[in-house]
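Backbones bend. To wit:
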Amino acid sequence: MSCRDKCREMGYDDGIEYGITRKYVETRNWGVWEVFRELVQNALDEMHEVTGARPKEYPCREEYRGLTPITVIEDRGRGLGIHHLLIGTSEKKPWQRGKFGEGLKLALLASAHLGYRVVIRSGDKEIIPVFVTRVVEGVPVDVFCVCYKRGLPAIGGTRVEIHGAALCDEYRARFVQGLKPECIKYTFENREWYDVIDVKCTKNRSHVYVRDIYVSTMEEAVGKPACFSYNLFHVAIDESRRIPSSGSVREDVRFLWRIISWKASGGDQRAYEVLKELLRCIVRNCTLSPGYEVPIEVDMDTFAYVYGAEAATVRRAFEELFGEDTVFVYDEELRAFAEYVGAKYIYCPQPVGFSLQRILNTTEKLRRHVEKTVKNIIRKEEMSPRTRRIVEILEEIARTLFGELVVGRAIQYGLLEEDVHGMSDIRTDTITLNILHLEDRCRRYVHRCLEWYIATLGHELAHLYSRATDGTVEFERGLTEVMIRATTNAIQKRDRIVELLRELERVLES
């Protein structure tokens, strides 16, 4: 039987035969989701085209005829023409959700294969997909056919019925229009459109939507979860619309956060609040152990292209959340220094930490922290003649004991906090000793003066040598190396040490 004969037998005017067999649809591996997705996608595109704005409504509802559920997908667009059913015919525009111009044909093909009765009404036309059995060279073959008829009472737009299925609620969360408004944390709409979506609305799994339609989970797309679900725009996907390009997902997420930073810097309060949510998530996941997958926003340098006013806004949001004095460190050396000087810090050795360390002025904050601790630096010219001479002798003893460990490293004296004997700055190879402690220990007795100076200086040298903090294996190794140098030189250069100690004793007794 021909397609035309089959259609006329069913009461239709005519039909279009595609020359596609049932076996072909099996190779496409389309299920009911793919059928439903394409039909809703076409409705969204038509609504968008007619109104000139991105649709807010979910174009799906369910009806019942007796006990039979019917899924109804409806738009108030320009309607569907018979010529739209021809292979190779597409009026898709660059911004639209459909990209390949074959979705409707494949959806009808798959629905007929799956056994769902699909009826399309548009204008005065009715369209249904069927298979017709034809005998080719003595072999019966099921060939795809679409039947149509005209002359029915006209309706506006297009109405698609899927009989025997209740799909609207089942797949509601797979369309941005199907989500509750409160699920959308932030929306940016221009020629392109983006959404940041609360993961609680996607069953606590981060979803990737492309132009309003679910494609995959973020884990499937890039191998990692995310802080949010995302509706993206510039994502490359395969023809099945199941496989997004990992690189394009990452770039679009980064682009979206650049937009949000920009909008927040311009006074958009909603953008500012979602930016703060992202920073909370980043900090929460910065130091996860290797056994846990950090979110994509942490795994990539999300703020790589954020500068100027946008960077200042990120900085303000961070300080509101974690305090003005909190420093954000990416590299281990600065982390060790922050810990050593007692600064409150957040350590983030993940890729996002690289740009956040820059944006959040980490080195400047550490410098200010040191300046608060070191209240004042006392130059030798400002010391009393007696103190200056004591310092000169002690420094010469230090050079004799520690040798090249002190070469090129500045030793200075300042007013430190009361319980701080000394501190070192690994960024500048500078050691600052507490002048008040020095003057107290060096009032009279040589042994108290020398013990304090060499012990304090040796401790700080060990920090600079090891680039590590107290209690670490690296620091203990550095301290051991400093002690070996001092002990060896004390033995080998004892005559010079004795000479300097006698000079120190004369100054202390004066």
Summary: The chain has three domains: 3-173, 179-368, 376-509. The mean pLDDT is 90. The CA atoms of residues 1 and 488 lie 105 Å apart.
